[in-house]
Amino acid sequence: MSILENFRDWKEFLGDRVEQAKQAGMESETLQNVAYQIGGYLSEQVDPKNDQERLLKQLWDAGDKEQQQALASLMVKLVQNPENINRGN
């Protein structure tokens, strides 16, 4: 099973990567810019594997650049709290 098939696994994976970036000294603004770039890549290149990913893609595609940056920032914030990773799917 791919991490993209289970949203909880995806959030855990993303949370681990965010923590690694922070420990490596990446600043919050840089981290959010990377998240924005990854969000764009995922939207364009990766087919959503579950309902949550489909919703994120629809929100991403509906938004302008500023809204996409906000969504990327929110995803980073979401996975920085371990309580949010284990909640839901």
Automatic annotation (TrEMBL):
Gene3D superfamilies in the cross-refs: Protein of unknown function DUF3243 (1.10.760.20)
Pfam families: DUF3243
InterPro entries: DUF3243, Uncharacterised_YmfJ, YmfJ/YflH_sf
Domain of life: Bacteria
Name of this protein: DUF3243 domain-containing protein
